[in-house]
What we know:
It comes from Nesidiocoris tenuis. This is Reverse transcriptase domain-containing protein. Helices cover 52% and strands 8% of the residues. The strands form 3 sheets. It has a two-stranded antiparallel sheet with strand order 1-2. The protein has a two-stranded antiparallel ribbon with strand order 3-4. The chain is elongated, with a radius of gyration of 28 Å. It has 16 helices and 6 strands.
Amino acid sequence: xxxxxxxxxxxxxxxxxxxxxxxxxxxxxxxxxxxxxxxxxxxxxxxxxxxxxxxxxxxxxxxxxxxxxxxxxxxxxxxxxxxxxxxxxxxxxxxxxxxxxxxxxxxxxxxxxxxxxxxxxxxxxxxxxxxxxxxxxxxxxxxxxxxxxxxxxxxxxxxxxxxxxxxxxxxxxxxxxxxxxxxxxxxxxxxxxxxxxxxxxxxxxxxxxxxxxxxxxxxxxxxxxxxxxxxxxxxxxxxxxxxxxxxxxxxxxxxxxxxxxxxxxxxxxxxxxxxxxxxxxxxxxxxxxxxxxxxxxxxxxxxxxxxxxxxxxxxxxxxxxxxxxxxxxxxxxxxxxxxxxxxxxxxxxxxxxxxxxxxxxxxxxxxxxxx
Length: 371
């Protein structure tokens, strides 16, 4: 092969990496490579289909990269990106084309899976997370190569938008829940942190220690970064009040969220303060306490309308407070189910009360959030 030419092959996928200071010198080397490859294939009874050969010019220079390249009598048109081993390699090695295609493919998969994951029906949260892993595998394919591209906000947001849709289904959450909060409730590590983690695990190859140990170390670092982002988050303040530390929440051995429990954890749901903000309630005030806004905190920890049910739970678990509720829940499966049952009972009754206040266009929750 000519100097500064490297052949890279895997199975029947072969790429020729050609270095050249000018397009002319690169084209001369390309012709020699194609001639050499063609001769080898001919000697082995094979034929090289030049018309199916793809060429991409990789350069940092601001030059035209979409132009015709002639090899023997065949003219090849260069592309903005070529697919090699499932990864789209573009002219600037920014991997924007790959990220866009991965996001589009994962979005279609998310839409298909969403039909199986209605908020009030369908599989429980643990099984929904398995379905979410399918989306993650699409989004993160080959990420060891292109993880650094997520330093560009546009690319990061594109993948995050798809992951958010999936997380909403895992958590059975209203679409208005913030990205930061729904990731925590669903227990889904943000996609940019997963990308960084996988790259770090790959880079640790050859270092002392087992693969399992390296993955565990990287996961601890990832959770530390996530905690820092959660601490700095401006959105999802109610969720942060309930779940300030990610470690206990993510490391719990029991307990799954559902449509009703997620409303308690996010504050988005059958609460007049929330519905008023969304234009679906005449007033944000509680129907039973005229001097208080009807939000999640008031409903579950203050409102006298639900005092009897609240006291029944407190007789078993002790006094309920926002700062300690989740810690009590994760202590045991029994505690978790007791709080989940409380949330379901209260919110089911509240939905009936809200619906009785008037037409759905003015008062009540949206049935579309259940689908």
